[in-house]
Records
---
Amino acid sequence: MSVATRSTQSPSSPPGPEGPPPRRTGRLFALTGAVVGVIYGYDTGSISGALVFLSKDFHLSDTEKGLVNSILVLGSILGALIGGKLADALGRKAAMLIVAGSYTVFVALSAFAPNVVVLDAVRFLLGVAIGISIVAAPLYIAESSPARTRGASVAAYQVATVAGIALTYFVNWGLSDGGHWRLMLGLSAVPAALVLIPLFRLPDTPRWYVLKGRIDKAVEVMRLTDPDVDPHAETEAVRAALAEESGGSLRSLLRKPYARATLFVLGLGFFCQITGINAVTYYSPQIFEEMGFTGEGQNFLLPSFVQLASLAATVLAILIIDRLGRRVVLLSGIATMTAMLGVLTAVFGFGDLTGSGTWIGFGAVLLFTAAFNFGFGSLIWVYASEAFPAQLRSTGASAMLTADLVANLLIAQFFPSLMSWAGAATTFAGLGVLALGALVFAACTAPETKGRQLEEIQGFWLNGGRWPTPAP
């Protein structure tokens, strides 16, 4: 089928690629990426319910339970490390096809795992696919969306990920009566297979075509994805930006003037996970059982409401972040997390876990998770993209992601063992101390970048972490 914009092109312009009509194509890029985000969120959270039942079937110890979760994160670290190079070498589209195909295969295999050794091996490979998707999916969306909708498109991916986690808990609740952990793990193979269909139809991004020197193809796709701009001028702008970005290295991050920015981004990435958000994502049914809630249906339904609150908090943050400012949103989110960890410490240490204390604890978990998504969850990628100049931006984001995943690995592996060994009160008190450290760190290092041009933000780091004084 011919592209609908052909009639608006000049006679000398080459015909557009086959595919959906303009405007709709840009939305299809964003929608496809968002579906991958939902699948990613689902696969991250599905183990929370499945672990309750497979632990009994496979007779797992606390350490083995932790390994089922941490092996996924370990694979994610590897996937994130290779994701950028893979997306550059093979293409953003090829990376997304690998992600969707891997999700389909490894999710299905995890549902049929005969023992925990096979399950761990498959989850490691699934983690590699997740790590690649963390890098490739936002890249794919951002590089293929028109400038006027790019922010909303990337934000939609973040919202989709939280929606996927929320969906997990409703599915787990629906399947909890029969203990169908294999279905809990395997259901996302279906949408993962279906998303391959639009991916095969869509082209790669204009930026990747420029990266590979395929300028004519980049112009064609630019015309298709954003018909309101001059495709030749936009493609030339992309080529100039790529020339500016060449040469960024990890060593450059550790040198002045960007060593301070690197410390900020790495610290933010580490604190984002070490404060315990994925303890709730991975182990919420066990946490609610420890609180005194009884009945598998109740322990699976309650996390669903927690994730719905998180979804609402993410949307709220996106709506107000450019009005109230970065620091207000980030610091209020971390402060609320710290307070709720204090409440959980009190509930488990001194509360009545047979009466009102259970519901106070539930409210604290709900507000803790919502506060994370409001602050850390909504701002970490914003700061990662704003802290560095163009030539260091992707390297800095990769470094932050590595710090984030290392902390995630520690939480996934050791949280159940800590709960058993030290008790819930001590465990949450420790997380509270870490959250307080995160609040102090963010208050001392996070700049307010609302309304600032990227060049102004670079001046902040060049000036030793202070805004330059305007000339009189």
---
Amino acid sequence: MAHRKGDEWAAVLAPWRQLAEIAWSAPQVVAHRTARMATGGWPPSARDRREYRRMVTEKGTAFTRAAVASAWAVPQAASLVLTQGLTPVHRTVTANRRRLYRR
């Protein structure tokens, strides 16, 4: 089965798109969470404590998944390794941006 030229470009550009979305979303998430911490008061509310706990656990989970996905993708093309490695981080960061700014 022949591959279309557009499919090849999509595979090459996918990690760049993910990196751009991470670069756009991560600062928004950090700013939102920092502002929430600065204005939240003491002691933190139950909602804030859940968010703080989530901040810590999701990073470990996302980066562990990224490492596993990258390790399994090693025999494949470099752009696919990058895409599979970025996907868990991208998913977490963009989901946080949507969730935090939906409120």
---
Amino acid sequence: MMNRRDKIREKVMARVRMDEGTGCWIWTGPTSGTEGRGAGYPRMSLAGQTVAVHIVMWTNEHGFIPGKKELDHVCRNRLCVRPHPEHLEMVTRKRNAIRREEAKRAMLCEEA
């Protein structure tokens, strides 16, 4: 019989496409939409609640995220749900904001 963690992992992985080039686990299910600061993040229903899939995967594999911490998509792909240090990392809000701005600047430099 499968335990709760295995059931959650199986439910998530049923909607994941592996990107061989980047190593990302790309969510193919519903997202949080296209507008606003939280747009584009993977969403699913779990125990009657809508939850962020990357957070579910992290907590399922690594445990609780303390209140002063949040997850940063190190791979810069919001649809990635892989709970691995090259893809998701638990950081402070400040660190996440700094990385976000660095990524924006890097994209602007690439476009120029």
